[in-house]
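Thread: quick sanity check before group meeting

JM: Hey all, I'm pulling together slides for Thursday and realized we never actually wrote out the predicted structure for the chain we discussed last week. Dropping the sequence here so it's in one place. If anyone has concerns about the input, flag it before I start.
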Amino acid sequence: MEHVAVTITIEPYSPETEEILVAELAGIGYEGFLSEDHCITAYIPANSFKESHLRIILDTYGVTKYSRDYIPEKNWNADWELRFNPVIVEAGKGCSIRTSGNGSMVPVWPPVAYRLVIKPELAFGTGHHPTTFMMLESLLHMDQQVLIKNRKVLDLGTGTGILAILASKMGAAVPVHALDNDRRCVNSCRENARRNRIAHKVNVLHGDASFIQSGRYGLIMANIHRNILVSEMDTFSRGLEPGGGDLLLSGFFTTDVPALLDAGQKNGLVLQEQKEKEGWSLLHLVRS
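JM (edit): ok, ran it. Output follows.
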């Protein structure tokens, strides 16, 4: 299947406009987004692309500059792998992320405890984006404090499965639950779990937050859109073990933090830590 890549220039730029455009485009079938230099590149299957629908959204927000390119399916993974430089996260015991393939670079320095092989395909999560990077950092810090080993873990909106796979390698209780409402992400996560030789330790499911069972998890992770995080905060809270269950949230701008903290407080969640990177934020909340 061919895809269309639409590159949109936001002038004047603001994080709020970018977030609104991403949400609007996701609502009409766009599946992946890359944010760079005040531009968004949004991807949609070619048979779903309708320029008239795109222009209605852009006109609504006063956006006039955009371009589009057709991407053959056969070139999609090759394009990702060409641009996928290894990622090193030096927090805690450290981890590295590289793509698969004979030509991929294998990082050997600095020495790290966890080495992940991730093929992104059409799923989100390689460690390059600030939100994923911060989630990886937080997992590594929690691992150093022995807050992952033997705990039941759920990753909502798993994408490539990068967070679920790392939690499993850290010794989380078997199985780690990895959920996504996109079947292509489910398949991507399963394949990446197999590549990392832990397919038997990660239960990948097609579903949403309604899957979360009350009081079950020591750790819930969600790197997804802020509107979903706010609307599902009560579900997250109920899903955590009482008296110390951890919730790691990202996928939102720093300007969204007050709304998320307010939703968390209303559901018995206390702020443990806040991170910020390039205008994006992460919240570590704990069930009181």
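AS: nice. The domain at 131-287 is CATH 3.40.50.150 (Rossmann fold). The chain has two domains: 3-71, 131-287.
JM: adding both to the slides.
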